[in-house]
Design a protein that fits this description.
The chain has about 290 residues and is an alpha/beta fold. It has eleven helices and ten strands.
C-alpha cells in the first residue's frame, strides 16, 4: 500500500517548526518527532507541543515499525548532561506540558530509569509548575527500575503496548506482550495515584476482535488513557502497511474504549502516543480522577 488515503493530507512544515528543530539539534536535544518521522510535526511544533527523546538517539531493539536508529554494538554512550539540557529547552521554549520518551537501552543495568528520574528532577528544578508525562520502555520488567520511575514524580506514566499479542514475535521480537501489561499494572501497584497511559498502532493486520482484547487487557492492567492511531511505514525497509483504517472505524474503537472504562481515549488516523497529550491529561482531571 503506497498511496495514502485523502484523510492523511498534512500541512507543509512551517518556518517556525523547522526553526525549533534546528535550535534543539544545535543544543544536542533529540525529539522522537524527528527521529521517528512523525507525520504530525508541522501541527505540533507550531504550538510548542513536542516529545523529547532521552538516553541518546540509538535504540538497542529492532522493532519492525520504528524509524529510530538501532544498534547492537553495546555498550552505547550515556550523556550525563542530557537531563539538564532537556530542562533548559523546556524552559527556553516556554513549554507547559513536557513529554519525555526514550529509546530502549537494554545495555544499561536499570534500562535508563535513573536517567528518566534525573530528567524529571531537572525539569522540576528549572521549570516549577510544568506538567510532566513520561513514555517509558519496559526496562525488561526490572522491578527496581519501575520503582525508580514510580517515585520520580511524573504526572503521567505511559508505556506502549503497540500491537496485539499475535504480532509481537514478528514486529517486536525483543519485547513481550505480557511483560508490557505487567509494567503498567506494576506502576499502578507502586503508585496508585499515578495516571497510566498506553498506545496501540493499527494497520498491521490485527483483527477487530484482537484489538478489543488488547484494549480489555490494558484496562485490566489499570491503564487510564488510551491512544489509537494508524501505522505508516517510515521507509520501504520497514514493516509494510497491511490496511488503512477508516476514520469512522477509529471512532468506533474510541466508543469501545470508553465503554471499557478508559478515562480518556484519543482515536484517529493521525493520532500518535503523545499527540494532544496535555488535552488527554486534562480530560482525566476534568472528570475528577486526579
Amino acid at each position: 500500500m503506497n498511496r495514502l488515503p485523502d484523510w492523511f493530507k498534512q500541512q507543509i512544515p512551517s518556518a517556525e517548526s523547522l526553526d525549533i528543530t534546528r535550535k534543539l539539534l544545535c543544543v544536542g536535544v533529540n525529539t522522537v518527532c524527528v527521529e521517528a518521522k512523525c507525520p504530525n510535526s508541522s501541527i505540533c511544533f507550531k504550538d510548542y507541543k513536542l516529545t523529547f527523546m532521552i538516553l541518546g538517539s540509538t535504540c538497542t531493539r529492532s522493532c519492525r515499525f520504528c524509524a529510530v536508529s538501532k544498534s547492537k554494538d553495546w555498550p552505547l554512550q550515556l550523556d550525563q548532561d542530557e537531563p539538564e539540557r532537556i530542562a533548559q529547552s523546556v524552559r527556553s521554549l516556554g513549554i507547559s506540558y513536557a513529554v519525555i520518551t526514550s529509546v530502549s537501552r537494554d545495555d544499561l543495568a536499570d534500562g535508563g530509569a535513573g536517567h528518566f528520574s534525573r530528567t524529571i528532577q531537572a525539569i522540576r528544578r528549572q521549570c516549577p509548575g510544568v506538567f510532566i508525562e513520561v513514555l517509558i520502555p519496559d526496562f525488561q520488567g526490572n522491578q527496581v527500575s519501575l520503582e525508580i520511575l514510580a517515585r520520580a514524580g511524573a504526572d503521567v506514566i505511559a508505556h506502549n503496548l503497540e500491537t496485539v499479542s499475535r504480532l509481537y514475535r514478528s514486529l517486536r521480537p525483543e519485547a513481550d506482550y505480557s511483560r508490557s501489561l505487567k509494567v503498567l499494572s506494576s506502576l499502578k501497584q507502586l503508585n496508585n495515584a499515578a495516571i497510566t497511559k498506553s498506545s496501540l498502532i493499527l494497520g498491521f493486520s490485527e483483527t477487530s476482535e484482537e484489538l478489543t482484547t488488547a484494549m480489555k487487557d490494558l484496562r485490566q492492567a489499570g491503564c487510564d488513557i488510551l491512544t489509537l492511531g494508524q501505522y505508516l511505514a517510515p521507509t520501504v525497509n520497514h514493516e509494510p502497511v497491511k490496511q488503512f483504517i477508516r476514520p469512522e472505524e477509529f471512532l468506533r474503537y474510541q466508543d469501545i474504549g470508553y465503554s471499557l472504562g478508559f478515562k480518556s481515549v484519543l482515536s484517529g488516523p493521525l493520532v500518535r502516543s503523545s499527540f494532544k497529550a496535555e488535552e488527554a491529561y486534562r480530560k482525566v482531571c476534568d472528570y475528577g480522577y486526579v
